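Checklist before submission:
- one chain only
- standard amino acids only
- sequence pasted in full

Submission:
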Amino acid sequence: MFILIDVDHFKQINDGRGHATGDQVLAKLGTLLKEQAGKSERAARWGGEEFVFAMSNTGPAQAAERAEALRQ
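Returned file contents:
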């Protein structure tokens, strides 16, 4: 299962605070997602302000729960 994560309103960060700050936000989010990944999970930047969170041996209900936990 995969979770696609898109950072809401990211353009406002780049426009309001500059691209260097936006890059820092993306790097920190990538680090946070990797820290949250369990043994059978992987997190990676997908492109732009999107990330993908891959999970092995996970069904739809478990993936939905995991997505909500990550969102919070």
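Reviewer check: The two ends are 19 Å apart (CA to CA).
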